[in-house]
Amino acid sequence: MKIGYHWLSGTRGSPETVSSLMEPKVPLLGMYVNNGIKSVHPHIPAVTRFAPSPTGYLHLGSLRTALYNYLLARNTNGKFILRLEDTDQTRLVAGAEKNIYDTLKWCGIQPDEGPVQGGIHAPYRQSERKHIYKEYADQLVAQGKAYHCYCSKERLGDLRESAMKLKPPTTVTYDRKCFHSHSQTSDEQPVIRFKSPEKYDKINDVVHGILDLQPQYNSEDRRYDDFVILKSDGLPTYHFANIVDDHLMGITHVIRGEEWLTSTPKHQALYQAFGWTPPEFVHIPLLTSLKDKKLSKRDGIMGVLSMSDKVLPEALINFVALFGWSPPRPSPGESVSEVMSMDELVEKFSLDGLTRGNAKVSNAKLYYFNKEHLHRLAKVDEKVVELAETYDLTDDTEYMARVLKKLLPSMSSLDEINNYKYLFTIPDYNTSNAPPNCKAVLMRYAELEYNVEELIKEFKKKEVFQSIRFALSNGAPGLAIPEIIDLLTLEETKKRVSTCIKKL
Ligand code: GLU
C-alpha cells in the first residue's frame, strides 16, 4: 500500500454483504442473482485486457494477471485484449515486448486483439495513441475539469519537500497555483493536471468489497491530489491512458494486482469526469514466497519463459491459476482435483472462486503439477511427438518420442532427460568405476551371442547386470537393462559392448 493513503474500511463483495452494497454513490455493479444464488461472476460476455508495461520480462505475477483475464473472457465467450502500456519511455527494456508475446504464446494465452493480431481498436501500443489522449485531455481542460500547469521542476520539488515536513506528512503535494492563475506563468512546456475531487468516492472491488481510500491531507496546509494526466512531452501518464483505453476498448472487467488498488479512486474520478461507466475492478492478492516474503529471483520472478526447459506450460498455468482462485466444489465437503488443463480452467473459472489472502508460491507444488501433467501428456501420442521436437538431443524425433514415452511417467522436470544422455550418444566410459570382472563378463556375453540366461550360469547375477549396465550407460541407474536394449537396439548394444571391452 502506498504511504499517505488511509485504508478506511473494507467489506468483501461476497453474497453475505449484499446489503452493504446499497451505500450511496458506490456503483452497484458486479452482483448477479442466478437461480437465487448471488454471484459476482458476469452472465454477459466479459471484455478483459492484459496491459503490461514492457519494462522487464514477464514474471509469475503478470502471468497470473494475464491468465485470469484470459480465463474470464473465454469462460463468458467474451474477448481478451493485449495492450502495451509503453508511455514511460525511460523504463522500457529491450526485448521485453517480444518476451511478452513469446511467453503468452508458449502458455497458450492467445489474445483476440493486440499489437500482433490487430483489431478494431488498433493501435494497441499506447505510444502510438498519443493523439487520442491529447483529444481527451483537451476535452477535460475545456470543461474546467483539468488545467495546464507551468510550474517549474524546482517549484514542484520545493512543494514536495515542504509536504514531507508537515505533521502528518503527505504525498499529496501540489498547491493548485496554476489552477487559480489561469494563465501561462513561465516558458516551461506545460503539463495537464486533473482537478481532483475534494474527496474521492468509495470504490467497489469484486474481491475487497467497498473501500474508502483517501489520500492523507494536512488540514493546516491544504494540498491537492491534482495528478498529471498529460506530460510536457505530450505523452499521457499511466492513470490517464489506462482509463481512456479501457473505456474506448469496451473493457468490462479489470483484473489486476492489488498494488493498483490505491490508483482506483483516481481512475473512478476520471470516469466520472467524462461521464463514462467504469468497468468492474477485481484486485487480486500479491504473490509471496512460502515465508511470506516478496518473491525472490529463484521463485520465477525473473521471466517465466526461463522455466521452459524444466516445466510444461500446462503445469505452469495450472500452478499459477491457483494463486488466488480455487475451483468450485461439487458439493460441500466433496474434494475436487486441482490438476486441470487450460480447457478445464476455462470451464471452471469464476470470479466467485477468487480469494483474498496473499498467494504463496511453492516450487514443490509446481513440480507436483509438472509430474501430473507429464503423466497426462505421456498418454497422448501427438503431444509426446510435439514435446520430442523441443529437445535437441537427436534429430530423430521418432526415437526421441519413444524415449519420452518410457521416461515421462517417472519425470518431474523436463531437464531430467539430461540424466539419460547415454540414450543418444555412446558414453565416455569411466573405466576406474567399472564393476568387478567387467571385461571377462562382457567378453563372454559377446561369445554367448548376447544371451543373458546363459551368462548368469557362469557369473554372479550382480556382476552380469552391473557389467552390462556399465557397457550400455557407464553405469547410470534409472531404466531396466531390457528397456535400455529395447531403446538402443541390439545392434547398438553389440557396438557398445565391444567398445567398452577395448577401453577396459
Ligand atoms: N501497465 C500496468 C502494469 O504494468 C497496468 C495496470 C493495470 O492493469 O491497470 O501492470
TrEMBL record:
What is the name of this protein? Answer: Glutamate--tRNA ligase, mitochondrial
Where does it mainly reside?
mitochondrion
- PANTHER family in the record: GLUTAMATE--TRNA LIGASE, GLUTAMATE--TRNA LIGASE, MITOCHONDRIAL-RELATED
Matching entries from InterPro entries are given as: aa-tRNA-synth_I_codon-bd_sub2, aa_tRNA-synth_I_cd-bd_sf, Glu-tRNA-ligase_bac/mito, Glu/Gln-tRNA-synth, Glu/Gln-tRNA-synth_Ib_cat-dom, GluQ/Sye, GluRS_core, Rossmann-like_a/b/a_fold
- Glutamyl/glutaminyl-tRNA synthetase class Ib catalytic domain location, by residue? 47-366
GO molecular function, a single term: ATP binding
One Pfam family, short name: tRNA-synt_1c
Alphabetical GO biological process terms: glutamyl-tRNA aminoacylation
Q: Which UniProt keywords apply?
A: Aminoacyl-tRNA synthetase, ATP-binding, Ligase, Nucleotide-binding, Protein biosynthesis
Enzyme Commission number(s): 6.1.1.17
Keyword Transferase appears in the UniProt entry: no
The similarity comment for this entry is: Belongs to the class-I aminoacyl-tRNA synthetase family. Glutamate--tRNA ligase type 1 subfamily.
Recorded GO CC terms: mitochondrion
Gene3D superfamilies on file: 1.10.10.350, HUPs (3.40.50.620)
Tell where it localizes: Mitochondrion
